[in-house]
């Protein structure tokens, strides 16, 4: 089993060399979840927002016009630099960039009004520490908007889904199930307000090539999918033609929580 530091180094390496790809990736730059962010959060002009694992800066850019300041945090410096360039081009001026570990945030207790984290937590080796940190930095009554790919509740299917992701992206750690995330939220004083689950469809070729290191890697992933059981293929809703994988789908969960009371003792 990889140690936390090794996992985080792999994340930095993977995102560092693919930073621009993530800025322009259709799966990250677009999506109905981005459109819902402002509607769900109702941000106020005096709000301080912390966007954890900002990636290409898409969430920070969407929220910036509606709040006082957005702190865009990411473990990878190259990712922050790419996000900064894209945000400056979009005239999003009220964003500051901080290199930070999601599991050990360099911010004071109860210092931000809103925390967001979108399509990133499956790279975190210690989700429990991450959720604790979210609760710690949020002011009482503050909002936490979380979006990530999630695994099914069935453990065997979950292992299959995570294996596919790991084959494609060595920095992938694990997609948790919705029930696992909910347990972490509850234990850290975060009360669910609204949620949405949706299927995300991917065209296999651009999906696999975005992070591919070799043709052999791409072929190995495709063969693994083609050899999957009927149940596994049905879960991914795979479309196969002439022995080739055309599309597959995964589950994404979007949830809005509010911090209750004072600082929780979730660790």
UniProtKB/TrEMBL annotation:
Superkingdom of this protein's organism: Bacteria
GO molecular-function terms, A-Z: S-adenosylmethionine-dependent methyltransferase activity
Species this protein is from: Brevibacillus reuszeri
Entry keyword Aminoacyl-tRNA synthetase: no
Family of this protein: Belongs to the methyltransferase superfamily.
GO biological process: methylation
A matching Pfam family: Methyltransf_11
Protein name, UniProt field: Methylase
SUPFAM superfamilies reported for this sequence: S-adenosyl-L-methionine-dependent methyltransferases
Keyword list, A-Z: Methyltransferase, Transferase
Methyltransferase type domain segment(s): 50-146
Entries under InterPro entries matching the protein: Diverse_substrate_MTase, Methyltransf_11, SAM-dependent_MTases_sf
């Amino acid at each position: 089993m990889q140690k936390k530091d090794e996992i985080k180094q792999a994340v930095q390496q993977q995102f560092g060399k693919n930073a621009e790809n993530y800025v322009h990736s259709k799966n990250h730059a677009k999506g109905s979840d981005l459109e819902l962010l402002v509607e769900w959060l109702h941000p106020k002009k005096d709000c301080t927002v912390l966007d954890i694992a900002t990636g290409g800066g898409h969430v920070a850019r969407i929220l910036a016009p509606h709040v006082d300041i957005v702190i865009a945090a990411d473990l990878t410096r190259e990712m922050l630099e790419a996000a900064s360039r894209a945000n400056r081009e979009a005239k999003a001026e009220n964003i500051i960039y901080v290199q930070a570990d999601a599991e050990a945030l360099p911010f004071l207790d109860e210092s931000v009004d809103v925390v967001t984290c979108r399509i990133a937590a499956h790279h975190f080796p210690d989700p429990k520490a991450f959720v604790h940190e979210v609760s710690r930095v949020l002011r009482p009554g503050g909002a936490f908007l979380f979006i990530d790919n999630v695994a099914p509740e069935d453990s065997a299917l979950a292992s299959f889904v995570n294996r596919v992701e790991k084959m494609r992206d060595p920095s992938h750690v694990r997609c948790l199930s919705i029930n696992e995330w909910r347990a972490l939220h509850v234990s850290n004083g975060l009360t669910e307000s609204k949620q949405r689950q949706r299927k995300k469809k991917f065209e296999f070729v651009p999906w696999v090539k975005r992070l591919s290191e070799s043709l052999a890697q791409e072929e190995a992933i495709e063969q693994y999918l083609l050899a999957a059981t009927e149940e596994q293929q049905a879960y991914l809703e795979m479309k196969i033609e002439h022995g080739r994988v055309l599309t597959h789908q995964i589950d994404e969960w979007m949830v809005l929580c509010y911090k209750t009371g004072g600082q929780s003792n979730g660790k």
